[in-house]
Amino acid sequence: MMLKSAVIAMASAAAPGIKTVDTTSPFCIGCELAVNGQIPWQASLQTSGHFCGGSILSSTFVNTAAHCKQSSNFTVQVGDVDNRSGQRITTAQFIAHPRYNGSLIINDFGVIRLSSPITFNDFAQPIALIAPSAERLPDRTPLMTSGFGYYQYQSNGVLPDRQTSRYLRWLDTEYVSVARCKSFWSGQTIDNSVQCADVGGSSICSGDSGGPLVYKVNGEYQLIGATSWAHVYCNSNGYPQGWSNLWYPEFNQWTRDQAGL
């Protein structure tokens, strides 16, 4: 099986590079274009270009994946589906989970502290973090994810075109039970820090790492995970993709503690 984490490795952005435990975690092949105000919690992490996604937790904290960590501070863009517009705020600190394992791609939790606050408006808003629970969702529960990652294939129809999307894209997907996820990824660790989702014909891809996986509670979306890994070709072909599991009490509390929630 071929997987890699969804961080994008490209010359225009000094990204950490794609992990290869063989997870791909890219993003939105087969996704729809978003409109301003539809996903106001989405963030784009940028150096000289987009390399990862994130979710606004508060005016000064953003949720992401640990494997998106950079060697120096970078910029967070919010408030516009065009990642060349909107608000740009420099980072002050990147907090990766102390037990993050880049080889197994587990405990892939990250929180960013911003150097100045986001100005909230109709297009930039925080998303509520889901309440903690050790219970898993029923198989095939509807979810939604979004990002600025790779969005089309090369002419051979197999490899993704190594170009991130300038515009935000989104995808309706479905929760995949631990048992069903393990049946596809027998060599991948699916522990309490990981959850899986998938929908036929579409997939997250490189550049989507750290972006939101959300679940609707009483008519409002809440954050349940950050994009972590996927098939190396970004074509699921039935293979589920992986997100961090923000439901699980230990990791939910860790995230709250870092972000002061």
From TrEMBL:
The reply to whether Nucleotide-binding figures as a keyword in the UniProt entry is no
Entry keyword set: Disulfide bond, Hydrolase, Protease, Serine protease
Q: SMART domains, from UniProt?
A: Tryp_SPc
Family annotation (Pfam families): Trypsin
Please give the Gene Ontology molecular function terms for this protein: serine-type endopeptidase activity
Give every Peptidase S1 domain span: 28-260
* Name used for this protein in its record: Peptidase S1 domain-containing protein
Q: Organism source for this protein?
A: Oikopleura dioica
